[in-house]
Amino acid sequence: MSGKVIKLHFTIDAHDFSLAGEASSSTKKMLNQLGISPLIIKKAAIAMYEAEINAFIHANGGEADVEIGVDRIVITVRDEGPGIADLDLAMQEGYSTAPDKVRELGFGAGMGLPNMKRYSDRLEIKTEVGRGTTVTMTVYVREG
Amino acid sequence: MKVKEFAEKLELKRLTGESGLDKEITGVYACDLLSWVMSHAVKGNIWITVITNINIVAVAVLTEVSCIIVPEGLKVENVTIKKAQQQGIAILSSSMDTYGICCRAYTLLGK
Asked: What's the rounded Cα separation, in Å, for the pair B4 and A36?
C-alpha cells in the first residue's frame, strides 16, 4: 500500500445491541468524506457489516481495523469466538448456525460469509475451533 | 417523488417525525432478511419490513434506502426510532400489509 493510509479501530461490543453495525456505519461515513466512489463504499460497507454482525452474533464481539489507502481498503475483523468448524459449509449461501433468537431479529440468513466474499475483492479467513476467527477483506479503490 | 409526498398519499404514520422526509424514492424493496436486503436493496428504495429492532437503522444507512415502512400497524421500539432520527432515516407505519403497500406504490411510482 503506498501513500497516506488512514487507520480506524473499533471495538465490537456484543453486550450493546444498539451498537451492532456501528463500526461499518462509521467506516462508511469516513469513506464518503474521502470522496471514494459510491460503488466501492457499498462493497466495503456491506462486507464489513456482515463481518461485524458475525462477530456480534457468534463470538461475543471482537475488534475491527480498517486501513484506507490510495488504492485499497483493508478491513480486518477478529474475534475470540468458537471458530468455524467447516469453512466450506459456512461459505455456502443459506447455511447458518445462528440461534432462533437471532433469526427472529432478521439475521441468520446464511449470507454473511457469502456476502463478504461477493463484496470484497479478496477475502482471507483464519479460523480455529475454540480459538476464534479473523476475517481480512480487501476492496480495491478504482476511479469511476 | 419524495418520501414526504409518498407518506402523505398513503396516509403513513411518521414514527420519526420530520426525519428523512426529503429523500427521493427510486422504487420499492420488501424483505425481512437483513443480509438479503444488504445485498439487494438499491439506493433510494422504500424498504418494507416487519423487522423493527434497532439493526434496521444500520441496514438503512448502509444501503441508503429512502425510508423504512413497517406494515400492518406494527409497533417499533423506541430505541429504533431514536436511532433513526439520529441518522436522518424516516420510519413510517402503515395499517396495510406489504402487498397492499406495494400495490399503492405501483400506482404512484410505476415500475
From this structure: 29
Do the Cβ atoms of B91 and B80 come closer than 8 Å?
A: yes
Hey, how many other C-beta atoms are within 10 angstroms of the C-beta on A118? 15
Which chain A residue has its CA at the smallest distance from B87's CA?
A25
What is the interface pTM, i.e. ipTM, of the complex?
A: 0.84
Domains in chain A with CATH codes: 6-140 (3.30.565.10)
CA atoms of B110 and B28, how far apart (whole Å): 10
Q: What is the pLDDT of residues A66-93, one digit of tens each?
A: 999 999 999 999 999 999 999 999 999 9
Cβ-based interface (< 8 Å): residues of B facing A: 32-36, 38-39, 43, 49, 51, 53-59, 61-63, 79, 83, 87
Q: Structurally, how many domains does chain B consist of? A: 1
Strands A62-68 and A6-12: antiparallel
